[in-house]
Write a structure and sequence with these properties.
Largest sheet: 7 strands, mixed
Distance between the termini: 40 Å
Order of helices and strands: EEEEEEEEEEE
Number of strands: 11
Structural class: mainly beta
Oligomer: single chain
Length: 118
């Protein structure tokens, strides 16, 4: 089992920045990959970004790749999603998920709310 702690959400004005954090603990193989998803009101959940054990494995969805970056701490337990130039359409609950691979994320955090509004 994996324990997931998310933080960093909040209210920000359009054009602002936020950094989301996801810290995982437990059996290491179960958080080899850590990803971020989001769900806006009335919409389905969509993948935003994911990273494996190497920086080269990082993936950011085309819809946000010019504004969002993902990174991982040296001990591999924490992943950051840096979100810049935020837009109202980025408003959503952001979820962290972990697993052995980015294609097989199976452990989910409780979500953190991001609201972009003036």
């Amino acid at each position: 089992q994996v324990q997931i702690v998310e933080s960093g959400g909040g209210l920000v004005q359009p054009g602002g920045s936020l950094r989301l954090s996801c810290t995982a603990s437990g059996r290491r193989v179960d958080y080899f990959a850590i990803g971020w998803f989001r769900q806006a009101p009335g919409k389905g959940r969509e993948g935003v970004s994911c990273i494996g054990m190497s920086a080269e494995s990082a993936y950011v969805d085309d819809s946000v790749k010019d504004r969002f970056t993902i990174s991982r701490t040296d001990d591999k337990s924490t992943v950051y999603l840096q979100m810049n130039s935020l837009k109202p359409e980025d408003t959503a609950v952001y979820y962290c998920a972990t697993g052995k691979f980015c294609s097989a994320l199976e452990y989910w955090g409780q979500g953190t709310q991001v609201t972009v509004s003036s």
